[in-house]
Amino acid sequence: MSVGKGGDDGSTDMGDLFDELQELEELVGSDAAREQVRETMRVAMAASATASPFGRVIRGFDRGDLAEALLGALLFGIPMAVEGGTQEVAVFLAGHPGALGATFCVAVGMVVGIVYVADIQDVRVHKPILGLLPRRLVGVVGVSFLTAVCLLTVWGRVDWGAPWLALANAVVAFVPMSIGAALGDLLPGS
């Protein structure tokens, strides 16, 4: 177990504390001691929740996070649903499947960058789906894509009689919605 991790100035933060506690959890021998370490992690998480909205350790993905992501997706996505340029870009992408796939992948990459790389918050992967997919990533991408599909469909902006073009429209709207969902989830500091 290392001591004194932190920034260049020797400071430590809640992320360092959680790293240390996770290392300690792996080192202790008895179930009772492991449970005590887990309880200490829960207390530390609760204490960090009452601190500043930034710099806290974020674990899991619950319905509050889902609601924040939905709000962010709507804030960034409603202009896309009413803007005619969305349909123009979709017509182009529908004729270029590689560009359509790349657009979707870039949007997912931006979500990964915002949530896990940009260091807006200290986000930890907690109980990944199938041991591989982070719940927060699936939640943010899922809610933003479903919001794009539902909003464009309900407002009559897509015709599912032409499913490829409708999908292209949804992908175009999904790009800003995914950014909004990621920021909406993280900025309140949940």
From TrEMBL:
Keywords: Membrane, Transmembrane, Transmembrane helix. It comes from the Archaea. The chain crosses the membrane at residues 66-82, 94-117, 137-158, 164-187. InterPro entries: DUF2391. It holds the Pfam family DUF2391. This is DUF2391 family protein. It comes from Haloplanus salinus.
